[in-house]
Design brief:
This protein has 320 residues and is mainly α. It is built from ten helices and two strands. One of its GO terms (cellular component) is plasma membrane.
């Protein structure tokens, strides 16, 4: 009668699993390196292509608000107004969309009946797939007209706040209108990610809170929201990334204007992405390189925002 060495039979499956683990680890490592290589390649392309215009620029690129860069031998252009408009529009969208997205996610996860939650979840995912040009057409064709009376009301009762000072734009093509359209665009992204995070809250945490006599809202406040805070931040940053780089919807709503204005009810401001989309077809000479330099600034802003969000999430200790 032959006997089998138990140590041999135990090591064989373990060896096969070890090979699989090694292959998976190498594949994941290679994917991470590939992402870094692509990111470095994009940055190198932007820097190289924008070098000529930046070297010939006679204005301060970071502080100037003028843009005269096409066929002149000594172009003068700056990205200050465009960067300001980009950050302002994205900030408005984030402030408007994040609370609504959290509320929708909580309703789907913990309040709505199962069938209604399934339908709402499907609609949220569907809204995320709508092209940005459709949002732009909706904004310029219907929304801005409807907002003009609301803007007049804001000026009447809140005009003492500098943000809502008049005179109100009669066309409704303001930075606040662009921010509202961007908020609608990023709402499905933030909602979908936040909903998934809320559904991952350990059942033991929720049941422990309810067992201590907490109401449903108290359970959400004590167990769900602390656990889902990193996911909320991550979803908000994903939405912010789309808002920063949005092109067509903003280009269709805002009137081209290279100014720095805090007045949300007046026409003015422009974003980097929309400016590139509007100027690129007619750009010549240093103009193309100057637009690529503006794209480099947008790339840097997006990178800084995402790195800051990653730092905030990593600083958050695991919920216990």
């Amino acid at each position: 009668m032959t006997t089998t060495d138990p140590s041999t039979t135990a090591r064989a499956p373990q060896g096969r699993r070890r090979i699989g683990d090694v292959l998976f680890a190498r594949g994941a490592q290679g994917s991470g390196i590939l992402i870094l290589a692509i990111l470095a390649g994009v940055a190198a392309f932007l820097i190289i292509q924008s070098f000529d215009s930046l070297a010939a620029n006679t204005a301060n690129f970071l502080t100037s608000t003028e843009w005269d860069a096409n066929t002149r031998e000594e172009p003068a252009f700056g990205v200050a107004a465009l960067a300001f408009g980009t950050v302002l529009a994205a900030a408005i969208a984030l402030v408007l969309a994040t609370p609504v997205a959290i509320g929708i996610a909580l309703f789907i996860a913990y309040y709505a009946p199962r069938r209604i939650a399934a339908v709402l979840g499907y609609l949220v995912d569907l809204l995320a797939a709508i092209p940005s040009v459709v949002y732009g057409l909706w904004g310029i064709g219907w929304l801005v007209v409807q907002l003009v009376p609301f803007y007049a009301w804001l000026e009447t009762y809140f005009g003492w706040i500098p943000l809502f000072a008049g005179p109100v734009s009669t066309t409704g093509r303001t930075m606040l209108s662009a921010g509202i359209v961007l908020a609608v665009m990023i709402l499905p992204i933030i909602t979908a990610m936040t909903r998934d995070v809320f559904l991952q809250v350990p059942q033991a945490h929720r049941e422990a809170a309810l067992a201590l006599g907490a109401t449903r809202w108290e359970m959400i406040r004590m167990a769900v929201l602390p656990f889902g805070r990193p996911g909320i931040i991550g979803g908000a940053m994903l939405g912010l990334g789309r808002a920063l780089g949005e092109t067509m919807a903003v280009a269709m709503i805002l009137s081209p204007s290279l100014v720095i204005s805090w007045f949300l009810l007046q026409s003015g401001n422009q974003t980097i992405a929309a400016h590139i989309a509007l100027q690129y077809p007619e750009a010549t000479g240093y103009g193309v390189s100057a637009l690529i330099a503006a794209g480099l600034v947008l790339f840097a802003i997006t990178l800084i925002v995402n790195m800051a969000a990653r730092f905030v999430v990593s600083r958050r200790k695991e919920f216990a």
